[in-house]
Design brief:
Radius of gyration: 22 Å
Strand content: under 5%
Order of helices and strands: HHHHHHHHHHHHHHHHHHH
Distance between the termini: 60 Å
Mean pLDDT: 84
Number of strands: 0
Low-confidence stretches: none
Number of helices: 19
């Protein structure tokens, strides 16, 4: 192992930045068909080999993120048990029935269902729950797959600032800079509804030719036929309802969300044992294990970049550019946080902004609230531009690959660049207008 303990500061900064950039580009382009996890871990390994981050620092970084790792494990367990109970098939059949055999109405139902899941259970839950539902639905109805699957991942982030519990980023920022519920709803919920409307409208324009058709409802099993074991199905629904309620309470009280998700998964596993469901033997096959490698690699890469001081300087630059105006705070806060999420992922970007926002506590209240709302908005919605900005998007990609659908980073960017900048602009303007009321 080559360890360069005495690398000059400038050289260390340049090397770290270069490796971080190459890692992000590799995640986007996936050379040699490597998945995102392998690229992220390769970047982290190179930083460790070159001594650009200490092994103990990397270990401490990973251990500090235990809640993130366990949250995804618990949520994937919940999703797997729900799929086994037939819940996804049942929801797919219900969505198709309400669409009245029209593909365009079914598309709208996907957006509405995704917004509901994101609002209550967070954007990560939407990626885990909605994507399998929609995949089952459109493949059985022989409808174009990609328009519906893109709707799943975009609505996950577009609806993730309807409520404080709709995205872990919201909790992370508002726990440091209190934003009471009425103010949150005023500054972010209306802009969120506007953004959702823009998202739906643009996607209808993009995919209008593929959404003109009708489908035969007979291709789907009836809601009753979707239920494999009625007693276990009812038990699963009751547990998921309990988890949803506990999730909201835990988010409001800052109780670890991972413990709620894991508890729900253990309850469903207990039910599977009680009803002698054979699914437990194959549970591991339904877990997207690469997501843990991606998270670990990215956190180490970001920690190395943070140690150079570049991220703190970036945050201070945003504050300087914003000045003391409401408009500047909202526009710069939105642009900076959205850009940052696509460079270092939205979770570490929120951490960077948390540190930077301490510098505006002397500013007028409207400026403080504008910057905070814009930071939440940019970190929540900005990841829709690329595949690296949000863990929910990476999880969505891994779920698709389990079903032999491969969406490249470039394919995703071609869609994101059409819709995301416009949503960011319109949403930021709406936040600015709400600040003045």
């Amino acid at each position: 192992m080559l360890l360069f303990f005495h690398i000059p500061v400038l050289t260390r900064t340049l090397l770290t930045s270069l490796i971080a950039i190459l890692t992000l580009v590799g995640i986007m382009l996936r050379p040699f068909q490597w998945n995102e996890a392998l690229v992220a871990l390769a970047g982290a390994a190179l930083l460790l080999i070159l001594g650009l981050i200490a092994p103990l620092d990397a270990l401490a970084t990973l251990l500090s993120q235990w809640n993130t790792f366990l949250f995804f494990l618990g949520m994937m367990g919940l999703s797997a048990f729900a799929e086994e109970a037939g819940l996804f098939d049942w929801l797919a059949a219900q969505a198709a029935r309400f669409a009245k055999n029209r593909a365009s109405l079914l598309y709208l139902n996907v957006f509405l269902l995704g917004a509901l899941i994101s609002m209550i259970l967070s954007n990560d839950a939407t990626a885990l729950i909605l994507t399998p539902i929609v995949y089952v639905l459109v493949t059985r109805l022989r409808l174009p797959v990609l328009p519906f699957l893109f709707a799943c991942t975009f609505i996950a982030d577009s609806a993730s600032f309807l409520l404080p519990v709709s995205n872990p980023i919201n909790i992370l920022l508002t726990s440091q800079f209190p934003l009471d519920l009425p103010t949150f709803l005023k500054l972010l919920s209306l802009p969120c509804l506007v953004v959702i409307g823009v998202n739906i409208g643009i996607f209808y324009l993009l995919y209008r030719r593929q959404l003109r058709g009708r489908f035969d409802l007979k291709r789907l099993p009836s809601p009753e036929e979707s239920i494999r074991h009625p007693a276990y199905f009812r038990y699963t629904c009751a547990v998921l309802l309990l988890v949803a309620l506990a999730y909201v309470v835990a988010s409001a009280t800052h109780f670890p969300l991972s413990l709620v998700a894991l508890s729900g998964a253990f309850l469903l596993a207990g039910g599977a044992l009680a009803w002698r469901r054979p699914f437990l033997r194959d549970l591991g096959k339904h877990i997207s294990w690469p997501i843990f490698g991606f998270i670990a690699g990215m956190f180490i890469v970001v920690r190395a970049v943070e140690s150079t001081g570049l991220t703190a300087q970036f945050g201070q630059l945003l504050l300087h550019l914003a000045g003391n105006s409401n408009f500047g705070a909202v526009m710069v806060g939105t642009a900076g946080s959205a850009l940052g999420t696509n460079l270092v992922n939205n979770v570490p970007m929120a951490v960077i902004l948390t540190s930077a926002l301490h510098s505006v506590q002397h500013a007028p209240l409207n400026v403080q609230q504008g910057f905070l709302a814009a930071s939440i908005f940019g970190c929540d919605l900005g990841p829709n531009l690329t595949t690296v900005g949000s863990l929910a998007t990476v999880l969505w990609l891994l779920i698709l690959r389990q079903r032999n659908i491969d969406v490249s980073g470039l394919d995703y960017f071609k869609v994101g660049i059409v819709v995301t900048p416009l949503m960011l602009l319109i949403g930021a303007l709406t936040i600015w207008l709400m600040l003045g009321l």
